[in-house]
């Protein structure tokens, strides 16, 4: 695929495995009515100060993790939205699943995650019911670069 330039966030395609960690390709569903997306990377560094650096420390990133925060509206009847909302009151492995993000340039991020529903439906009386959650990475993701 030939791609260059900037792109709007709405061109990202999010999918969630609606059968948890047992999800197969046909179980990967978009999540309707999500309005915002944020990804936060967190690297952990090993720090040391060898005698040969005149007191200056050295660092190497020894591990990484990430969380993706999605905020949007509760859409009853959408399989991806219903699946996430159904995890609000669950714990443990019941909240573990697979997720994917397809980027406009053709690259793809696939990963296992723990779904942490942070707002299953509270807001002002005149507002639409929200659905807000974090996808917290669980292990090493698979990033497939765009071809071409």
TrEMBL record:
The protein's name: Phage tail protein
Organism taxonomic ancestry: Bacteria, Bacillati, Bacillota, Clostridia, Eubacteriales
Source organism (scientific name): Clostridium pasteurianum BC1
């Amino acid at each position: 695929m030939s791609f260059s330039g900037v792109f709007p966030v709405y061109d990202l395609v999010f999918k969630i495995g609606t059968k948890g960690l047992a999800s197969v390709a046909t179980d990967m569903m978009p999540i309707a009515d999500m309005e915002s997306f944020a990804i936060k990377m967190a690297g952990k560094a090993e720090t040391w100060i060898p005698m040969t650096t005149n007191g200056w420390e050295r660092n190497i990133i020894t591990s990484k993790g990430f969380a993706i925060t999605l905020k949007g509206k509760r859409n009853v009847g959408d399989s991806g939205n219903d699946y996430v909302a159904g995890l609000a009151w669950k714990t443990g492995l019941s909240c573990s699943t697979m997720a994917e993000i397809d980027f406009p340039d053709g690259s793809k991020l696939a990963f296992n995650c723990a779904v942490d529903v942070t707002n299953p439906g509270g807001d002002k009386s005149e507002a639409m019911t929200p659905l807000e959650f974090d996808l917290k990475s669980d292990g090493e993701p698979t990033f497939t670069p765009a071809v071409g």
